[in-house]
Amino acid sequence: MLQHESYSFSRVFLNRNLEFFFILGVNNSDNFDEYWDGRTIEVVGYAVIYIDFETNEQKNFIYLIDNNKHDNAVKYTKKFIEQMSLSDKLSDRENFKIIKTKINDRVVSKPYKDFIKVVVKNEIPEFVLDL
After folding, report:
1. How far apart (Å, rounded) are the C-alpha atoms in residues 33 and 23?
2. pLDDT the model gives residue 13
3. Contacts of range 104-107, beta carbons closer than 8 Å, 24 or more positions apart
4. CB 42 within 8 A of CB 28
5. Which helix (H) or strand (E) holds 113?
6. Burial (0-12, 13-18, 19+ Cβ within 10 Å), 26
7. How many Å apart are CA 51 and CA 54, to the nearest integer?
8. How confident is the model at residue 40 (pLDDT cuts 50, 70, 90)?
9. For residues 4 and 25, is the Cβ–Cβ distance under 8 A?
10. Per-residue pLDDT tens for 73-123?
11. Which DSSP category does 17 fall into?
């Protein structure tokens, strides 16, 4: 089990009500140059920013893969979501639901919506992905 040196985030999907990101744990962060990327990068979870169209409230979900240590991943993901948030309300940027998941996919093929539906299950209405 690796303790990650840093974390990075990669957006997979965006529409007007939802953003979906991979949470990536990075080790050997200095092991790259213009010809070689020797860093070890592991998907440790998924971050979701969801705007509830009925209440206009932002809901933030952090899905963590079961087999990883998560203390720093949660901390840095919360900071990332706070910085990505466009909401003026402080409560929207500090509202997080942390959920464990067993879904550990590094490669996702189109359509991304099918993969996202598997991850978020019943937390987010299915029709939001179709908007």
Report:
1. 23
2. 92
3. 104/43, 104/65, 104/67, 105/43, 106/43
4. no
5. helix 112-120
6. middle
7. 9
8. confident
9. yes
10. 889 999 999 888 877 777 777 889 999 988 877 677 778 888 898 899 888
11. S
